[in-house]
């Protein structure tokens, strides 16, 4: 958002200091940038896991999907926030990538073999609530 405000400020400065043609070019470049940002979809969904190591594995799996721009898993809430380019990928691809790394999501069951290969501390409870409020601290192991 700051970048957009900055661009507007730049355009304002340009129109004061330069000829009309240059100012017009700058406006077109800004329009392209805004439409790129609009293609980004923000999504949150539940993912089971225990600890900081789980966080690394889950986020790495999500980020491995082409088109994912950011992934942040919350250990207390058992929930991930992802930002992705919806012209390159979709929600289900991200669910599946996380499940392949051994973790359950709301829509995909974690791969059992990958789960078995997780460190012991990461072998989360398959009955664990997802999408928690985060008010109750998760058990420290
Ligand atoms: Cu863990």
Automatic annotation (TrEMBL):
SUPFAM superfamilies (UniProt xref): HMA, heavy metal-associated domain
PROSITE patterns: HMA_2, PROKAR_LIPOPROTEIN
Domain HMA: 40-106
Pfam family, one: HMA
Gene Ontology molecular function: any one: metal ion binding
Protein name: Heavy-metal-associated domain-containing protein
């Amino acid at each position: 958002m700051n970048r957009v405000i900055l661009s507007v400020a730049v355009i304002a400065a340009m129109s004061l200091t330069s000829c009309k043609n240059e100012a017009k070019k700058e406006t077109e470049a800004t329009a392209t940038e805004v439409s790129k940002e609009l293609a980004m979809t923000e999504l949150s969904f539940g993912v089971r896991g225990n600890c900081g190591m789980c966080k690394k594995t889950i986020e790495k799996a999500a980020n491995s999907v082409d088109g994912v721009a950011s992934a942040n898993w919350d250990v207390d809430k058992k929930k991930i926030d992802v930002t992705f380019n919806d012209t390159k990928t979709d929600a289900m691809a991200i669910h599946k990538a996380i499940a392949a790394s051994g973790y359950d999501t709301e829509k995909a069951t974690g791969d059992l073999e990958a789960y078995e290969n997780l460190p012991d501390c990461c072998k989360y409870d398959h009955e664990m609530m997802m999408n928690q409020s985060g008010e109750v601290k998760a058990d420290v192991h």
